[in-house]
Amino acid sequence: MEEEEEEKEEEEEEEEEEEEEEEEEEEEEEEEEEEEEEEEEEKEEEEEEEEEEEEEEEEEEEEEEEEEEEEEEEEEKG
Question: Which parts of the chain are coiled coil (predicted)?
Fold first, then answer.
């Protein structure tokens, strides 16, 4: 009888250990997913910033061109 009880206990312990391991794995997976999501968000933000910078540069270039044209027109008049 005692042997049977011991075996049962061992089995239960093993099951518990397995469950714990599974839980740990799940937690790790969740953490990884969260990290990936964060990275994605960061990438998106960076891309948006780059786009904004490009737009600003283009606007500046356009303004410069307009100024140059105005100067040329004034020179022609003068």
Answer: 1-78
